[in-house]
Amino acid sequence: MNENGSFRHLHPLSVLFEFAKTIRDNLIPTVAALLSTGSGSWIGYSIGSLILSIGLMIALIRFFTFRYRIEDRTLVIHQGLWGRLNRTVPLDRIQNIDLSQNPFHRLLKVGEVRVETASGTEPEAIMRVLSIAELDLLRETISKQRAAGVDSIELTKVGTAHFLNDDAQQLETNGSNQTIPSSIKQETIEDRSRTLLLQLPTRLIVIAGLISNRGEVIAGILFGLFWQARFGNQFIPWERSAERISGSRRKQAMNNVIQTEGRYFQSLFESISQDFGYLGSAALVVAGVLILFAILRIFSSLWYLFKFYGYRLELQGKSLHLHCGLLTKISATIPLGRIQVICIHRTWMMRLLGLASIRVETAGGSNKSDEAANTIGRRWFVPIIANQEVARILSAIDSRIEFRDDAYSWQPLAPNASQRMIRPVLLASIIASVVCVYFQPYWGWIVGFPIAGFGMWWVKKKSRSRRYARTPWGIAFRSGVLLQKCSIAFFDKIQSVKLQESPFDRRWKMASISVDTLCAGPAEHRIEIEMLDSEFAHHELDRLSVEIR
Predict the structure, then answer these.
(1) Which of 138, 184, 213, 528 fits 514 for a cystine, CB–CB 3.0-4.6 Å?
(2) How much is the average pLDDT of 48-64?
(3) CA pair distance 303, 206, nearest whole angstrom
(4) Tens digits of residue pLDDT in 206-238
C-alpha cells in the first residue's frame, strides 16, 4: 500500500458477507414472510422477496462505494451513495484494529476488520471484509507511518535538549545521517516485542462454563423451538388466507391443547407412581432434575469453549492483545491508556474454587455494539483466572495497583447503615405475616420468622461487603454478597464526582458519592457509594474534586 496511492476497495467477497449479515439481522421476518407462502398468500412472498432484494442492493452499494487509503499519516475513508460519508482519521488517534473471523472467513482467508479511536460512539470503519494479506499490509503501513511520526517528534525533542545541554549524552548516527539516542532505539525494539501475560488451559475454560449460567440461555432457546414444533400449529392452525381464524376458534384450539396435554401428563404420572411407588417417583424426579442440571452445565461449557478456546493475552508496548475462539477467531487490541475502570468479579462458586474474572471499561465505552471483538475485549476481558494471578495481570495494566485487602485503608458505611437497611426487611416480614395469618393463623409464624431472619443476615452481609478506598492514584470500591465486585478507577480518567443527599439521607445524616468515568458499563458495577457518613462524604468530595483536576 503506497502512502499516497490510489483508493483501495474491499474484497469482492464483501458482497456475499454483507448480504449474509443483512439476512441474519432480518432472519425472523424473512422466514415468517416466506413460510406464509404455504397458506397461498402472495403478500408474504412479496415481503420476503423485498427483504432479500434490499439486502443484496445494500451489499452491492457498500462494496462499490467503500474506499480507503493512507496519506500523510491519515486514514481516509469514503463510503455511501446517496448519503455520502467522508472520514479522515489521524493514524496516531487509531486505538484498535480488531479482526473477527468465523469459519467461512478463515476458509476464504478474509476477515472482518474494525478500526476504532477513543471517540467510542461507533467504530470509525467496519471493513466487511478484507483479505488477510490486505489487513497485514494495512497494519504494517499504519505502524510505519505512526513510527515515523513518533521518531520525528522524538528527534526534535532530542535535538533541542542537546542544544540546551552541552553535557547531553552522545548521539548515535544511523544510516540516514540522523541522530537518535540508543534509549529511543531500545524502546522501539521493546515496543515491537510481545510478552505473554496469560494463556488459559482448556480445563480452566471448561470449569468456567460449569460454574456459569450460559446453559440456561441455550436451554431456553431449545425449549422455545421444541414448544413451537410441538404446539405451534395447534394454537394457530394453518388455513387459507381467504378464511379468517376468529378469536373464539383460537381460544378453543388453546383449550383443546391444554386438556390433551394435561391428560397425557396425568396418565404418565399415574403410570410412574404405580410402577415405582411414591418414593421411587420422588427419586426419579430428583434424578431428572440432576440430569437437567448436568445438561445445562454441559451447554455452558460448550459455549465457553467456542468463545474462549485458545485464549491468549499479550502485552506489546502500551497495548494489550487478546486472541481466542474455536470457530470464530477473535483478535482484539486494548491500549492501556484507554482503560478507565477495572472490575474483578467473583461469584460464590468462583470463591469456593479460588477463581475470578476481570472486566474493563475503556474510553469511548458508550458503544452499545454486540460485535464479538467488542464484547470479548471488554465484557470478557479475562473470563476466568486463578485468584493468585489477578494481582499480576492488574500490575501489567498499571504497576501502581496492589490487589490485596490490606493494601488500602477501606472506609465502611455509616455506623447506622445496617439499622437503616434492616427496617424495610422487618416491614416486609410483618406484612407477609399479617397476610398469611388472614388465611391460616400458624402460617404467619412460619413465613414471618424466616423472612426476618434471612433479611437480617442479608443486611449484615451487604453492609459489610460495601467498602470504599482512596489511593494516591485513584479509588477502589467493592460490594456484593453472592456476586462480589471490586472496581478500580484512576483519577486522570474520572470525568466528574457527584454527592447526593435525599431527605432520608439527611434524616440519617448520610450521603452518597457517585463517580462518572465516561463508560457504558461493561463491568456492570457502578461506582456509587451509598450511605456514607455525611461529614466524611462532604470531606471526601472536596478531596476527590482536587485530585481529578
Answers:
(1) 528
(2) 77
(3) 9
(4) 999 888 877 666 666 666 555 555 554 444 444
The phi and psi torsions of 87 (rounded to 5 degrees) equal -120, 140
Position with higher pLDDT, 391 vs 190:
391
- Give the model confidence (pLDDT) of 434-445 as tens digits: 877 777 766 666
User: Which of helix, strand or coil describes residue 325?
Assistant: coil
Residue closest to 540 by CA, chosen among 477, 480, 462, 485? 477
* CA–CA gap between residue 147 and residue 180 (Å, rounded): 13
C-alpha cell read off for 371: 460485535
Contacts of 324 (CB under 8 A, 6+ apart): 307, 308, 309, 310, 311, 312, 330, 376
Average pLDDT over residues 110-115: 84
Average the pLDDT over each of 278-292, 296-310, 437-451 and give the range with the smallest value: 437-451
d(Cα 123, Cα 135) in Å, to the nearest integer?
16
Report the distance separating Cα 447 and Cα 158, nearest Å.
77
The Cα–Cα gap between 364 and 308 comes to 24
pLDDT bucket at 355, cuts 50 / 70 / 90: very high
The grid coordinates listed for 143 are: 505502524
DSSP state of 359: E
The full set of domain ranges for the chain reads: 8-144, 206-308, 332-412+466-547, 417-464
The pLDDT score that the predictor gives to residue 45 is 63
Q: What is the pTM of this model?
A: 0.69
Per-residue 3-state assignment (H helix, E strand, C coil) for 290-358: HHHHHHHHHHHHHHHHHHHCCCEEEEECCEEEEEECCCCEEEEEEEHHHEEEEEEEECHHHHHHCEEEE
Number of CB atoms found within 10 A of residue 510's CB: 22
Q: According to the CATH classification, is domain 8-144 in 1.10.10?
A: no
**Burial annotation 310-337 (CB, 10 A radius, 16+ → b, else e):** ebebbbebebbbbbbbeebbbbbbbbee
State yes or no: pLDDT of 11 exceeds 90. no
